[in-house]
Write a structure and sequence with these properties.
Mean pLDDT: 95
Strand content: 25-35%
Order of helices and strands: EEHEHEEEHEHEEEEEHEHHHEE
Structural class: alpha+beta
Number of helices: 8
Largest sheet: 5 strands, mixed
Number of strands: 15
Length: 352
């Protein structure tokens, strides 16, 4: 039976390093507009919870589709394929192209169409479209590529996650320190080999959870309320993630008939170090176990949270040996998992 496998990967990590000290002159406010306290204290507590020491921002003349193109081109080169043979280009993002210093999101034409143009692909049967699924968007793109390939609609897809969250953050919101820019991409192809995607889970919880991540006004009430920024209900997201993500991960293992001891690495969306660690602990607790050392590689400390880009970037860095004391080998089983706006959750198991 036809399966899918990743045959190449690439990422684009912006050059601009933004250390936590960048925020030391900021006045952080709560939702009511009241001052949180001294910024130094806020930053110290932020680092202790999230693990973030610095993050990357795109150059002023770059937008999300530029980052997506750069990551996609590297994935194509890594796979050694002719881009004209791509059947689909799937670009997961959340806010489209937002120019530096502007507030308007630009999504027409789609970011995927812009990537196709930048790649100079002439083949009209290479279909390019965008995917909006919150932070789990890249994972969902992999699942859609899987559906296309297994249905016979495609044999080769480019799946990209790209975002410039630095363009949509409220400087008066302490959560603004979480967000970052970046892009990651993979080439997914049909294979008859005994490897690739093994199982998956995907879900949307919207009845009570739809507004956990949303677009809202600045916490500085003197700002124009019509100008909107990314906002999140951190405590609710934390509790939701801890309750739902481990169960999705467990379901993946059961569907693939995999013992938890067979997992070599777990690649979780780089949202918050403490939250990811708590998800990991709760997942292993479902089996009466504790997590093995180094099973969950992290990039959030230096790259921050770039939404849909975190997992494909992490994967790309790992397969190219760019993360200390972390590596992947043929036959290894990886568990991917993510949670984000929707509220959406997905996970999949994958054999290298």
């Amino acid at each position: 039976m036809t399966n899918i496998r990743i045959t190449g990967s690439g990422s684009y990590i912006p050059n601009n390093k933004i250390a936590n000290t960048f925020f030391k002159e900021h006045s952080f406010l709560d939702e009511s507009g009241s001052l949180f306290g001294q910024s130094a204290s806020v930053i110290e507590k932020f680092k202790a919870i999230t693990g973030i020491e610095e993050r990357r921002y795109a150059d002023r003349d770059q937008v999300a589709s530029d980052l997506a193109f750069l990551a996609g081109a590297r994935a194509i080169e890594d796979a050694g394929i002719d881009p004209e043979t791509l059947n689909y280009i799937i670009v997961a993002h959340n806010y489209g192209d937002v120019q530096y210093g502007k507030i308007q999101s630009d999504t027409v034409p789609s970011l995927a169409t812009r990537v196709k143009k930048k790649l100079a692909i002439r083949n009209p049967k290479c279909v390019a479209y965008d995917l909006l699924f919150g932070c789990p968007g890249w994972n969902e793109g992999i699942l859609q590529a899987n559906a296309f390939i297994k249905s016979g609609m495609a044999t080769r897809c480019l799946v990209i996650g790209a975002e410039t969250l630095s363009r949509v953050l409220d400087p008066y919101d302490r959560d603004s320190m979480i967000y970052a820019d970046g892009a990651g991409a993979v080439i997914v192809e049909a294979t008859a080999e005994n490897r690739g995607l093994l199982s998956f889970e995907s879900a949307t919880y919207a009845l009570d959870e739809a507004d956990y991540l949303n677009f809202g006004s600045s916490y500085n009430h003197k700002q124009d309320p019509a100008t909107r920024y990314i906002k999140m209900k951190g405590r609710k997201i934390y509790e939701f993630a801890l309750n739902k993500v481990p169960l999705a991960m467990q379901s993946c293992l059961e569907k693939a008939n995999i013992d938890i001891s067979a997992i070599k690495k777990i690649l979780i969306h780089q949202a918050n170090e403490k939250m990811d660690e708590a998800i990991l602990m709760r997942f292993y607790a479902l089996y009466g176990k504790t997590p093995p050392a180094d099973i969950m590689p992290m990039t959030i400390h230096t790259l921050g949270n770039s939404s849909v880009a975190t997992i494909p970037t992490l994967y790309d860095l790992m397969v190219h040996g760019k993360i200390d004391n972390q590596s992947l080998s043929a036959g290894d089983i990886i568990l991917f998992a993510s949670v984000g706006a929707g509220m959406n959750i997905n996970a999949f198991t994958y054999r290298i």
